[in-house]
Amino acid sequence: MHGPKKILVGTDLSESSKAALATAAFYAKTFDADVVLASVFDPTPFVAPSVIPGPTDLLESATREIEKSIREALTQTAQDVFADRAARVKIVPLRHPAPGDALADLAHDEGVDLIVVASHGRTGLKRVLLGSVAERVTRMAKCPVLVVRAGETD
């Protein structure tokens, strides 16, 4: 059976993304695939450079700290969730203001065959205000996208 040889799984490191991680681990093991484990972040909502006097060094320092923290969390996730193939997991903390676009672009750049993302199931005003990363990835990606509803593996 032909299956994906390289899988991108996007995670926001929340509890609700665990179902997508478990699904990606299942596909990776089943098809002996490599994994790109990515988390997209945008530090600007946390540090407002226009309010802080002085150079943008503070923003860059904060960004480095956020990236380091995300890289450590992704590394731990790779060891926990993808233990049988942790050496074949590429860790990608990615600074970008639009997570859906960033994941679709990363998938193209990495040549992945499948993207796995979680759907948090937000509706109404929350979805309009927050946007839908899964929906954006599905529209922008040039490869198949598997959207896993949060908690589906329980």
Number of strands: 5
Topology-level CATH name:
Rossmann fold
- Work out the radius of gyration: 16 Å
Quickly count the helices.
5
Structural class: alpha/beta
The best one-word shape is globular
| H-E string | EHEHEHEHHE
Uncertain stretches: 126-131
Give a short synopsis of this structure.
The chain is α/β, with parallel strands linked by helices.
What are its keywords?
154 residues; alpha/beta; Rossmann fold; five-stranded parallel beta sheet; 5 helices; 43% helix; 20% strand
Describe this structure in words.
This protein has 154 residues and is an alpha/beta fold. It has 5 helices and 5 strands. α3 (99-110) packs parallel to α5 (133-140). The chain is globular and about 50 Å long.
Question: Helices and strands in order, then pairings?
Answer:
Blueprint: E1 6-10, H1 18-31, E2 34-41, H2 57-81, E3 89-95, H3 99-110, E4 114-119, H4 124-130, H5 133-140, E5 145-149
Parallel strand pairs: 1-2, 1-4, 2-3, 4-5
Helix pairs in contact: 3-5
